[in-house]
Q: What sequence folds into this?
């Protein structure tokens, strides 16, 4: 027995003098009891979780049908559950923007039609020759045009010349 | 699974004619291992079923990108781990709490869960595991219960073997101490 152990023995003896008693062999087996208790608190080998009966049996069918047969399942969002505020705001914004654009467009085109286009043509800036015009017309259009402007009678020709030719100019020439 | 069998299975999975049969075989081979791996992370059976389903669908859709640089099952473990973590994080965001709180909630539910047949000490074990940081939880579960090698863990988690050994020993010590504190 070491000096340290004998010191504890003395302490035990001292306690005994106070009249307390322990069961037979209690102190002698205390170390072993504590060690056994510590070993009992080892980490369990099993986690304790379980699965429903037959869970693993049909997994193949279920997972194959999900991955191969069917398209990905998308959640159905009921119409009443949808938040309409962003959609309505978007539509309203489009209508307002559309109104202003339309106003701007029609205003510009009216101005052009009434004043600037005629001035542009009158000033001779529009460089469109007879060949350019001819390119825009089909042969049928040209025939039709020729037919309309053909003077079918001498009387028609005379009327045209009287209406469009200045006689004084002719005399000068 | 021997490597030649694994490469044969992968080849069949990439072949459009043999794909379905190979996929069935793959599910049969790994359904239980992946289920338990996910279950130990999310704890609830129904949540595990959802995550397992997503895992296998992801494996099927991404098999063409599997180049064989790692083992097939470590690649699948990696997908399962990511899916489980994503699931926990999404659930946390949805409930506006942290992922740790989600785990604590799952633990509370475990006590009355019909699919938990553990005794008091096993419940304490689950609580002790939940107290670890997420990475140590993963390492402990895969090493202690699934008996994976450090090399496999390294492939799954992308961490060095040395780091894994150290993390595992720390996790075991923490759990043992926790269990002793609660029992004594």
A:
């Amino acid at each position: 027995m070491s000096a340290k152990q004998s010191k504890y023995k003395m302490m035990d003896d001292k306690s005994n003098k106070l009249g307390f008693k322990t069961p037979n062999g209690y102190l002698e087996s205390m170390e072993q009891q504590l060690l056994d208790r510590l070993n009992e608190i080892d980490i369990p080998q099993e986690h304790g979780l379980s699965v429903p009966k037959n869970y693993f049996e049909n997994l193949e069918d279920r997972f194959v049908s999900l991955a191969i047969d069917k398209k990905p399942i998308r959640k159905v969002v009921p119409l009443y559950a949808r938040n309409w505020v962003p959609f309505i705001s978007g539509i309203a914004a489009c209508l307002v923007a559309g109104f202003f654009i339309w106003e701007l467009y029609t205003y510009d085109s009216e101005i052009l039609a009434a004043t600037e286009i005629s001035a542009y043509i009158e000033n001779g800036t529009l460089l469109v020759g007879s060949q350019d015009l001819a390119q825009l017309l089909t042969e049928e259009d040209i025939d039709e045009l020729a037919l309309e402007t053909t003077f079918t009678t001498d009387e028609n020709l005379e009327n045209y010349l009287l209406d469009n030719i200045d006689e004084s100019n002719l005399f000068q020439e | 699974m021997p490597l030649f069998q694994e490469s044969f299975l992968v080849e069949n999975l990439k072949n459009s004619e043999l794909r379905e049969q190979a996929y069935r075989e793959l599910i049969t081979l790994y359904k239980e291992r992946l289920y338990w791996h996910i279950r130990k992370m999310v704890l609830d059976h129904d949540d595990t079923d959802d995550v397992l389903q997503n895992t296998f669908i992801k494996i099927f859709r991404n098999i063409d990108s599997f180049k064989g640089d790692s083992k097939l099952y470590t690649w699948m473990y990696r997908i399962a781990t990511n899916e489980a973590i994503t699931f926990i994080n999404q659930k946390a965001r949805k409930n506006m709490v942290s992922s740790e709180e989600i785990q604590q909630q799952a633990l509370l539910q475990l006590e009355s869960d019909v699919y938990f047949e553990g005794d008091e000490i096993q419940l304490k074990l689950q609580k002790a595991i939940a107290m670890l940081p997420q990475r140590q939880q993963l390492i402990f579960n895969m090493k202690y219960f699934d008996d994976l090698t450090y090399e496999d863990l390294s492939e799954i988690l992308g961490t060095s073997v040395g780091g894994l050994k150290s993390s595992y020993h720390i996790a075991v010590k923490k759990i043992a101490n926790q269990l002793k504190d609660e029992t004594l």
User: Anything to note?
Assistant: The longest helix of chain A spans residues 85-122. Chain A has three domains: 3-40, 80-125, 128-167.
